[in-house]
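User: Please predict the structure of the protein below. I'd like the answer in structure-token form so I can feed it into my own downstream comparison script.

Assistant: Understood. Taking the following sequence of 318 residues as input:
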Amino acid sequence: MQRRDFLLSGVAAFATQLFEGTAHAENTSLSGTANSTYHVFGVPLRSGSLIPGNENDAQAYRDAQLVSRLQAVGCNVIDEGDVNIPSYLPHHSIPPIRNWPGPRIAWDCISASVSSSLQQAGQIPFLIGCDCSVVIGSAQALRRTSSEDIYVLYIDGDFDDAAPDATHCNSAAACAVWLLTNDSPFWGGPALRPANVSVIGWSSASRSAKSGVRSISLAEVRRDGPFAAAQHMLQMIPASASIILHFDSDVVQARELPSAYFPHQEGLTLSEAGQLLRGFLGDPRIRIIEVSEYASLRDFDHSNVTKIVGLFADALRK
């Protein structure tokens, strides 16, 4: 064999190996996603919110046939019932965090409930009926069960990064991103690096100067296209990361989803929200899904929660 032919054959062999390796990696990712099991946990939590409205919202998701609709699109789903959160948590408006230490107690309960699922590959807790502060409990659980770096994709109409203030009482939900990214005595951290948290789809700007949190505004999502924006964000996250996907229903505009806890006049359409979720939920690094801030008291006929269930059923379709 001549030297030129030898070199060409070596390059061809290398290219074949590279292609096969890439194909194997892609197939592994796809099979990991396809074989995942979603463990649905209701979170009967109002303690992290401003006013009543989230006490038993998980039941509305069940009435809207969340489990059967996910199963119908090819998902493996187990309804684990509700997280056992005490009903006697404190309720007050004393600064800096409303109802404290109620939210911390709830986060510890959530962390304890979902940890067993997180210890097994392909098992994904799916939290429903919750407020935005539950992301702290999810991050705490991942910290305790995984050695991988944790990233949070926080899809929300607000930044939720208000700093605790001794002169003003904020809800834990309004402080969720700040608590997640700053060392404080309020949860069993350590805090995540700000660059590990991305707020996506916001129309109400950040309340913390120089927070270091990544973000894509509503306008930027529309400029780039929801699916492309999701894919771009995922490309910035290491392959070895574990991701929490948080979806606040107020990221959808009020005229399409008026049942949000704090509805926004400006927001994604349902179609745009669906494209964004499809861009994210096919990623095998997703370890926890949270759907928050739906108020069943504003949705007597369950038409709005049916729309939310439809968004996730379409995004998780196999």
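That's the full token string. The longest helix spans residues 3-34.
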